[in-house]
Amino acid sequence: MKRDAASQSMDSALEEAICKLAWLNFARARGDVDSCAALLSELKVLLTRIPSLPPSFEKTPNAVEELKIARAIYENAVILSLKIKDREALERNCCQLKEFYIDTCGMIPPSPDEYPFLGLNLLRLLAENRIAEFHTELELLPLEALNHPCIKYVVELELSLMEGAYNRLINALQAVPHETYVYLMDLLAETVRDEVAECSVEAYDYLPISVAKKMLMFTSDQEHLEYISEEQSEWEIKNCSVHFDMAKPKPHMNLPSFKLFKQALSYARELEQIL
Fold it and tell me: Hey, what's the signal peptide range on this chain (predicted)?
């Protein structure tokens, strides 16, 4: 009797998950973000009632179907976190989804979106400039994954970034292989832009506005000027050029801490002579 009751409870949880997942897909198709968020919260709570999921992986009669449903729920969770631009939720959902891709290998059929989502996780690390973690995740992928267009796209992005071939990055922004990559490509562009801005300050005293705009990957003067106004307040625009003088780091000799350190060394030398 107890087994039958437990079995019925698991069956009801699975049926409820299937129903709510259908509503989630419907809400996502309509672009109803609020309904998606509410349904995902309910579904994640519901998944805690299903013992066949990681880390326990109990062999229940409906284990295969339950694992497939749970995987689809987390794929939706990744998409929602992208839509609402929640980077913390994106990282959390990517990690949970990756567990279903790796740990359930051979237990359930592979998801058709597995490599696009694994590529998305790589792109997330690249956009956040977490290069060491990027390479760690890349090494964990199976060899066949490296030939997938989504994975190859991100690997080539990283190569372009390391080589400083920002023109290739600009072209790549216009040719994303999967719709879910758009938000992270914008984030990557911001990361690269900040790197270029920092290097420009070190390398130049000033640049013509048109050259600076091209280097910073802006397509319009307005976006370029807004970036300088909001993100680089120490830059100055004069005589049709962007001047970096105010943003350059001050010499260490002018720092009060350096003067105090120098003075302390002087006192130490004098004390040594006295003793």
Answer: none
